[in-house]
Amino acid sequence: MLIKTRAIVLHHVKYGESSLIVTLYTEKHGRMTCIVSGIRSKKTRLSLTFFQPLTLVEADIYYKSNREVHRIKEMSCPFHYTSIPFSITKSTISLFLAEILGLTLREEESNEGLFNFLFHAFQLLDTKDEGVANFHLLFLIHYSRYLGIFPADPDSATDITRFTGMKIFRNLPGGTGGIFMDMMKTSLAQAEQIILNKANRMILLDALVKFYEEHLEGMGRIQSVNVLKEIFSN
Length: 234
Prior knowledge:
This protein folds into 2 domains: 2-76, CATH 2.40.50.140; 84-233, no CATH class. β1 and β2 form a beta hairpin. The protein is globular, with a radius of gyration of 19 Å. It has a 5-stranded mixed beta barrel with strand order 1-2-3-5-4. 41% of the residues lie in helices and 19% in strands. It is built from 7 helices and 5 strands. It is an alpha+beta fold.
């Protein structure tokens, strides 16, 4: 069955001499693994740039429910990034977020709300000029809602896991806990309204990474966080 779906590229690996194995998060079927053949052939109409992390695409995919790997027929980009590929800060954030998604997006079924959140979030990252340094922190906070681990205020939370998680952030040093409470109420589009110095930004990043690693079973270590820290320490 040939399906057409919007999708977000998570990552790819080389397969054979001229093929790629691509992991997508799709609007219609959640996480999918696909093969792209002949990518280095002169006859192909697909560009390697389509398969960079977090690229937003529309794909025609030969889909069979009983298969683990599906085949991409055609692909196009409904939104071309104009700043992410050329900004060290934005490209590093995108690699970090792509790793987060690769570790946490496991469902092979449609989730329209989550997909739309992601699809529009990365467009916003590309077009945004102010508040970019806070974007990944706000993203992790809001994305946690869709993962079912949002650290709700313990005064109103009824779930003990959320109460425990919130204590991590309430006990942060240097007033960072209060900033975190404000960030829970701030949208991605309002990232520039959060004022953070380098120290507070690092504290929040470490706390959020620890929170994800503790609350998502089998997540493992996030490798790109060290590169992200290096970018924001300069």
